[in-house]
Amino acid sequence: DRQQHIRNFSIVAHIDHGKSTLADRILEATDTIAKRDMQAQVLDDMALERERGITIKLNAVELHYQAKNGETYIFHLIDTPGHVDFSYEVSRSLAACEGALLLVDAAQGVEAQTLANVYLALDDDLEIVPIINKVDLPSAQPDVVKEEIEEMIGLDASNAILASAKTGLGVPEILERIVSDVPAPTGDLDAPLKALIFDSVYDSYRGVVLAVRIVDGQVRVGDTIELMSNGKRFEVTEVGVMSPKAVKRDFLMVGDVGYLTASIKTIQDTHVGDTVTLADRPTATALDGFRKITPMVYSGLFPVDNAKFNDLREALEKLQLNDAALEFVPETSTALGFGFRCGFLGLLHMDVVQERLEREFNLDLIMTAPSVDYQVVRTDGEVVTVDNPAELPEPSEIKEIREPYVKASIMVPNDYVGPVMEIAQRKRGEFVTMEYLDKYRVNVIYNLPLAEIIYDFFDDLKSSTKGYASLDYDITGYRASDLVKMDILLNGDPVDALSTIVHQDFAYDRGRAIVAQLKQTIPRQQFEIPIQAAIGTKIIARSTVKAYRKNVLAKCYGGDITRKRKLLEKQKAGKKRMKAVGSVEVPQEAFMSILKMN
Length: 598
Ligand code: GDP
Ligand code: MG
Prior knowledge:
Elements: E1 6-12, H1 19-29, H2 47-52, E2 59-66, E3 72-79, H3 87-94, E4 99-105, H4 112-123, E5 127-133, H5 142-153, E6 161-162, H6 171-181, E7 194-203, E8 207-216, E9 218-220, E10 224-227, E11 233-235, E12 238-242, E13 246-249, E14 251-253, E15 257-261, E16 275-278, E17 297-303, H7 309-322, E18 327-333, E19 337-344, H8 347-361, E20 365-367, E21 374-378, E22 383-386, E23 398-413, H9 417-426, E24 430-436, E25 441-449, H10 450-464, E26 470-481, E27 483-490, E28 493-494, E29 500-503, H11 507-521, E30 529-535, E31 538-545, H12 561-575, E32 578-581, E33 584-587, H13 588-591
Parallel strand pairs: 1-3, 1-4, 4-5, 5-6
Antiparallel strand pairs: 2-3, 7-8, 7-16, 8-15, 9-14, 10-11, 10-16, 12-13, 12-15, 17-19, 17-20, 18-19, 21-22, 21-23, 23-25, 23-26, 24-25, 27-28, 27-29, 27-30, 30-31, 32-33
Bound molecules: guanosine-5'-diphosphate (GDP) and magnesium ion (MG).
């Protein structure tokens, strides 16, 4: 029957090992996409994904595969991101699957996110099909990689498929192995509907579109569904699958991975991990859902135009539907007005959120420097969490500041251990141990402050190891550190949105660097602008932006109105991302100065 012919699987790997390219070959081989419509990494359909060449969103598609045994199978393939900032997308994808194709680059071998992602799949008891990809490369070492898979992951790699997602080598075998190795979904067609929401997106016409995995039963257009976390009821208006464009169906049944709409207009009603059932025949128990994810970094998001505050709120709510890792709460800044304090999984995630808000919701935003969350022990004994430097209590009220620490594993070829340790040491790292992974590589473990990791650690690591190092980290807890708040004053006034929390030992250097960076980014204005960095009342660095005297319009000779208008427009465009902070016009880049201090 149908259920026995369904195979649900994800492709997991370290970033750039070829997941999206393999998905392309599978779509081609199953004639899901006509050759003429094919483009590279076709499932990376977001403009941002295409521009950056990375997968940001999970993407579930249905395809039909005629196997060598003559039978036709229904595949639901979920392509997933590889970057650590999007691992929540991976874990949610895996919850909809029975199997995972594990891709390992034949030239790079097992890397940090290979391990992180395969462990997620093993946690979910998925059947793993190991594939060694890119065997077409001259530098491919499939035998070494096989060994790594066995030694480092503990998987039997004797039957690993040697493949090239580029040339298509091995793809027929991969398709057959999906049929033979990935189990058909279990679940009961006759039981009441039980479906897992693993993703969602807001559509202005159809309302919330839910990505669901049907665990038991079936759902049809016209059914009244109930969301089990809040009891809200809706009538199903459409169900279907992505293939890769939306294809409507009359029903979804046990084992299916598809989408569902039910004129859900109130965004707050739906969240990923919730269970969908039928109102008049509910299932007894809800599914476990997903673990709550905690942000790693926080920053403030403010509309350039203060009148757009409500638009920003609406945009964040809609985006949150499609980005379950995003968090936000309203925030007020003296300098920037009303906005939101947002939590992200990392700097790439932060960057992607800002870009999506601007592109998909047409907003101009100012984003403030990222910060981690600190635990502040006050002199009265109370412990408060502070993720916004501007909200740090007065120094006289602080007994101790604790910062989040991570355990970082850095996988690197033997030759680069020196540079790696040098960087980790410089970032206040505490050496834990070093494990030899095989003849060629080591795993260097350090305890490091999260704040040091999120800024430029990874860039430094990459550049001093010719790109060979890969990094994974987990928060382990908080430690008291010698931290101080550094304020920035423009024209004598402190700008709350430019305050940062820094380690005492780095304060002078960072103060000087930020001041220098600000001098470069803040354009000359009608008056001189002193820039100062201060700890408490003590000024630790200063500089000045000289006054700008020339009037642009003076250049316009008599009455050439078009030229004059053009100049004014140009000036206006340049100002788009400027924010008046007191009397000073400050560009967006200035708020990110802390990130550009090397
Ligand atoms: P993902 O990050 O895992 O989704 O990786 P992509 O599918 O985006 O591929 C990353 C890069 O590797 C792209 O430039 C691909 O063209 C390239 N690539 C993928 N598979 C192969 C392969 O089998 N051989 C070679 N030579 N390049 C490949
Ligand atoms: Mg990809």
